[in-house]
């Protein structure tokens, strides 16, 4: 079931016939978001779809403030970033399968119940951004990688989205986790045992294990592009190096795009002959998925190209800070 069709299982459209020209507003709620790239991308995508809608930053962790703006008649949707992805999700009327299974919400949209009352639905488009970025580059990835394991680097919220995407759309049932902290990996394993028991997660904890395991077809990085300093970080880097030097090659996607989308993982994968995908592509496709839910139509091709060009230019000109920016 496609994204838009699935959204209507939660209710009917709230948009009037002239929805694009109605003065609707979308808000980003999060902490430390003043340098977010979302306003740039969403403004471009709204304009490409002839929508006179506006995008606003609301730097807050106050659930009451979120609820007040959410329930305004001119609010047509929200994006939610750290540290609100779990707590604000609890304030919505319903969650999609993705949001429930990942345990975090980054997007809300509006649908109407049978009485015409607004319902606020939470979903997770991070996983859709991962899926669409891979399939755009490698349309047959879902079949080519069948029966092969994949790997996720990291143990936080982005790792959850990556795990779900691999399992849900690429048929991956065995996923290696490389991470600096064993406790975070244990928490991931416990979480998905309850939400998606069909996934088998393995902690890839040593270089020796990385040298003899089956080569993963898709490798997704979800950690900052920092120089490893702590013992766990150093081992994690060596594990990744060992995997990328293996004879078999596949796809490397690094969700990190700051301070540059050309990260260590991206460069190392490219050098070793893997197909590489930068985090800027994921971010744009996350925003595209959000726009589809709000505008209830696909984003036109020129809008996508403009957004891809704009974000690459923005991050390479240093217009955002790696510690301050939130999508």
TrEMBL record:
SUPFAM superfamilies from the UniProt entry: Aminoacid dehydrogenase-like, N-terminal domain (SSF53223), NAD(P)-binding Rossmann-fold domains (SSF51735)
Domain of life: Eukaryota
InterPro entries attached to this UniProt entry: Aminoacid_DH-like_N_sf (IPR046346), NAD(P)-bd_dom_sf (IPR036291), Shikimate_DH-bd_N (IPR013708), Shikimate_DH_fam (IPR022893)
Protein's GO biological process: chorismate biosynthetic process; shikimate metabolic process
Residues covered by the Shikimate dehydrogenase substrate binding N-terminal domain: 28-107
GO MF entry, a single one: shikimate 3-dehydrogenase (NADP+) activity
The protein, known as: Shikimate dehydrogenase substrate binding N-terminal domain-containing protein
Species of provenance: Penicillium flavigenum
